[in-house]
């Protein structure tokens, strides 16, 4: 997002003719990417008019936090439900100097993440990374990174269903009117139902929030564990729903409150276990079945966070690392797995697969 | 048509009528829904609108209840702090707020007025949550209380209304409307879909609640027995126009207009 002018430069290059980029492009754009990329495709796949249209929608979305802005969603070279909304948002804001990270359920190396990262590497030639701190744009499905985001970073969410009132009120005209008139009592009806039937608020993901004290918003199917991270976050948060053709946003340092009742306050998930690999007690853990005998282990869902912690422990060589390696040896199936995150893309705690984007 | 003097004096508030309908006309293109209807309604007064099918009763009710803008004429409602105001000049937000706090609307088919797949408790509590109550325990207590008052078994508070009988659904719909202590209820054939014994109980309940809560109500019905039981005053409509109005007993015992005479004589004597 650091680059409206860079993007404009690139436009110039490509609008001109099919000749390779000349002086206009920056080094990273002319580097490794270019040769493999631009063959017949515009920078970041979408044509410039489409990107402008999407940027206009994004600007409006940022100006009205939490408001769903309609936009002319395009066909993308992957199916709806795989992140077409997020990809279009990323394509509209990415510039040649950006560094892209893509995660799916917190992991950098699941199918969705790998393919979207490769898609942008191929169509833009930008640098990609798995390090949260190094990325300028992070496209995500179902998680917010554990590592706190910083000013200047952009978090792009893939959204399957943008309308928080959808399962309660089927009519789109009616839900729009409810947003306009701030009639949000119905959302509490759902939470009421949870408590009446389960004794507590059983909604665990896609937990409804109120943005800046005004618009009710669906945070996409992130676990409610991540909801507090959205509040007053220094990064810009953009949400794209491709099939539903909506974009919405939470600007930096904006209030995001999770709905609740006074006598049933909002709570995030907690675990009795800690991460099998890095020993973290404060991150979102995936429960993984590791054998047919009921063996399970808990690992961080955020693969970058987990590997950074382990790297730190290895360098430090402290007692924690020793203890952790001891733990690993107790379950022989685990020690043999070099890439932890590879196994962490099936979180049982996330029953969102069917509706996922 | 009917004048304010027709209502019982103990019901009239110091600020005049609760509702003033002034020459309301609703046309559907060439056709007439209702034409030139005027009346006042006072606090605690129950008005029945009777007439044959297609006579414009429901059209009139929708006009008065803010659901269908009249082609001509005004509907003024006595807002709590502002006195009589034309409801169609209020902002949409205020009109909707009014409709879900100070008014109630009971549909003929309870499925139109209920959320059929959320629990009975949530149905009753919805209005409370809509006006900002955020305390689960309190909402639940109030809900249980209202279910008792409409003679519903509170052990079914977490059951979906889809599993309720027709009469229970209708009572649930009434509880759902009363929970915010409205001053005015609109009822569109509230008992038409119920069998006779259930009708009688529901009417009894409605009559009790209306007098206990000092509720004003406009009841649309084609059943003169319902009007006789519930209403203080009666309007008889035919072809979109009010042909006769007055105290219920007076109209039914001594009908003046030929159509009213026909209507009254066609009812089987109970």
Quick recap of the structure?
Chain A is of the alpha/beta class and 357 residues long. Chain A is built from 11 helices and 12 strands. A 7-stranded mixed sheet of chain A has the order 1-9-8-5-4-2-3. A 3-stranded antiparallel sheet of chain A has the order 7-6-10. Chain A has a two-stranded antiparallel sheet with strand order 11-12.
If you had to describe this structure to a student in words, what would you say it looks like?
The complex is a heterodimer of chains A (357) and B (270). Chain A is α/β, with parallel strands linked by helices and 357 residues long. Chain A is built from eleven helices and twelve strands. Mean pLDDT of chain A is 83; it is low at 1-36 and 319-357. By secondary structure, chain B is of the alpha/beta class. Chain B folds into two domains: 27-102 and 182-270, Rossmann fold; 115-181. In chain B, helix 4 crosses helix 5, helix 4 (120-130) packs parallel to helix 6 and helix 5 (136-149) crosses helix 6 (166-178). Chain B is globular. Chain B starts with 18 loop residues before the first strand and ends in a 5-residue tail after the last helix. The A-B interface holds A 168, 177, 181-183, 185-186, 188-190, 192-193, 195-197, 260-264 and B 92-93, 96, 115, 118-119, 121-122, 125-127, 129-132, 134-137, 139-140, 157-158.
Shape of chain B: globular
- Largest chain interface and its two residue counts? A-B, 20 and 23 residues
Q: Between the first and last Cα atoms of chain A, what is the distance in angstroms? A: 23 Å
Distance between the termini of chain B: 29 Å
Q: Within the largest sheet of chain B, what's the order of strands? A: 6-7-8-3-9-10
Briefly note the CATH topology name of the largest domain in chain B: Rossmann fold
Rounded to an integer, what's the Rg of chain A over CA atoms? 21 Å
The appropriate CATH architecture of the largest domain in chain B is 3-Layer(aba) Sandwich
Contiguous helical run count of chain A = 11
Going by helix content, strand content and strand pairing, the class of chain B is alpha/beta
Which stretches of chain B are poorly predicted, pLDDT < 50 over at least 5 residues? Answer: 1-13
């Amino acid at each position: 997002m650091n680059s409206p002018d860079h993007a404009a430069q690139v436009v110039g290059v490509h609008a001109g003719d099919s000749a390779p980029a000349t002086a206009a492009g920056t080094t990273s754009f002319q580097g490794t990417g270019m040769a493999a990329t631009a063959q017949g495709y515009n920078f970041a796949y979408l044509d410039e008019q489409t990107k402008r249209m999407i940027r206009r929608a994004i600007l409006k979305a940022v100006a009205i936090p939490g408001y769903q802005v309609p936009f002319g969603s395009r066909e993308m070279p992957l199916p709806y439900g795989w992140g077409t909304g997020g990809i279009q948002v990323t394509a509209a804001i990415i510039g040649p100097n950006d560094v892209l990270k893509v995660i799916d359920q917190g992991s950098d190396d699941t199918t969705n993440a790998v393919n979207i990262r490769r898609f942008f590497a191929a169509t833009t030639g930008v640098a990609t990374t798995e390090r949260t701190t190094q990325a300028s744009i992070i496209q995500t499905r179902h998680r917010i990174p554990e590592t706190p985001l910083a000013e200047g970073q952009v978090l792009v969410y893939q959204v399957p269903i943008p309308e928080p009132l959808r399962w309660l009120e089927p009519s789109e005209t009616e839900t729009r009117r409810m947003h306009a008139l701030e009639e949000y009592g119905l959302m509490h009806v759902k939470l009421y139902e949870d408590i009446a039937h389960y004794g507590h608020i059983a909604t665990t993901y896609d937990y409804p929030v109120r943005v800046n004290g005004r618009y009710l918003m669906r945070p996409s199917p992130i676990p409610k564990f991540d909801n507090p991270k959205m509040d007053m976050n220094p990064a810009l948060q953009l949400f794209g729903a491709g099939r539903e053709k909506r974009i919405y946003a939470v600007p930096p340092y904006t209030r995001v409150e999770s709905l609740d009742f006074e006598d049933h306050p909002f709570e995030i998930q907690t675990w009795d276990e800690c991460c099998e690999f890095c020993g973290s007690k404060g991150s979102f853990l995936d429960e993984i079945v590791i054998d047919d005998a009921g063996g399970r282990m808990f690992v961080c869902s955020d693969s970058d966070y987990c590997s950074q912690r382990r790297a730190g422990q290895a360098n430090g060589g402290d007692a924690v690392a020793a203890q952790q390696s001891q733990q690993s040896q107790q379950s022989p199936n685990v020690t043999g797995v070099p890439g932890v995150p590879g196994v962490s893309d099936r979180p049982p705690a996330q029953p969102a697969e069917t509706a996922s984007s | 048509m009917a004048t304010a003097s027709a209502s019982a004096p103990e019901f009239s508030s110091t600020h005049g009528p609760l509702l003033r309908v002034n020459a309301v006309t609703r046309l559907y293109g060439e056709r007439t829904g209702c034409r030139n209807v005027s009346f006042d309604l006072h606090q605690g007064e129950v008005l029945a609108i009777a007439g044959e099918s297609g006579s414009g009763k429901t059209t009139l009710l929708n006009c008065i209840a803010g659901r269908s803008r009249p082609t001509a004429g005004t509907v003024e409602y006595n807002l709590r702090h502002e006195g009589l105001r034309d409801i169609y000049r209020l902002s949409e937000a205020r009109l909707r707020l009014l409709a879900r706090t100070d008014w109630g609307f009971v549909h003929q088919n309870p499925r139109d007025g209920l959320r059929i797949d959320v629990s009975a408790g949530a149905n009753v509590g919805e209005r409370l949550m809509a006006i900002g109550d955020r305390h689960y325990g309190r909402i639940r207590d109030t809900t249980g209380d209202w279910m008792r008052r409409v003679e519903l078994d509170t052990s079914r508070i977490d059951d979906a209304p889809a599993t309720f009988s027709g009469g229970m659904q209708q009572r649930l719909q009434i509880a759902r409307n009363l929970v915010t202590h409205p001053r005015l209820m609109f009822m569109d054939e509230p008992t038409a879909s119920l069998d006779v014994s259930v009708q009688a109980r529901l009417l009894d309940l409605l009559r009790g609640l209306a007098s206990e809560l000092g509720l004003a109500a406009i009841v649309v019905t084609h059943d003169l027995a319902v009007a006789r039981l519930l209403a203080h005053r009666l309007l008889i409509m035919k072809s979109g126009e009010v042909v006769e109005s007055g105290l219920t007993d007076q109209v039914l015992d001594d009908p003046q207009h030929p159509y009213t005479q026909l209507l009254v004589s066609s009812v089987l004597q109970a």
